[in-house]
Amino acid sequence: GYFSVHVRRMRLVYAERQEALVDAIRRQLGGLMDVSPARAGMNVIGWLPSGSDDTTARRQIAEFGVLSFPVSFYFIDQPPRPGLLLGFCCTVAENIQPAVQKIARALGG
């Protein structure tokens, strides 16, 4: 029964962190990144404007100490849009806002 309790608790924790990430991106990165909550998993995709280079965006963000993965890494052909895979499970909710501020600075927002 301990594992079931752990899973239920972590779903609540991860839901809180995802909500904090999505809200911060929507507030601070309007026009630079579009994001929707994920139904499952520990990541969301931050879609970049058409014509953006997600590998360049990843490098810019990494210079500010924020880890992300270009959506293009996961496609053989071109992805439908450029974007970044952003994780939310490995940080506490209080650190999400400062990380999104770094993303905004990195992307010129």
Can you give a write-up of this model?
This protein has helices at about 1-30, 55-60, 95-105, and strands at about 35, 45, 70, 85. It has about 110 residues and is α+β, with helices and mostly antiparallel strands. The longest helix has 27 residues, at about 1-30. The termini are far apart.
Q: Which sequence of SSEs, written as H and E, runs from N to C?
A: HEEHEEH
Shape, principal axes of CA atoms: globular
Structural class: alpha+beta
Q: How many helix segments?
A: 3
Number of strands: 4
- The overall average pLDDT, rounded, is 94
The low-confidence runs, each spanning 5 or more residues with pLDDT under 50, are none
Identify the strand order in the major beta sheet.
Answer: 1-2-4-3
**Roughly how much helix do the residues carry, as a percent range?**
40-55%
Instruction: Please state the CA-atom Rg, rounded to the nearest Å.
Output: 14 Å
Described by strand count, sense and barrel closure, the largest sheet is:
4 strands, antiparallel
- The proportion of strand residues reads 5-15%
Span between N and C termini? 47 Å
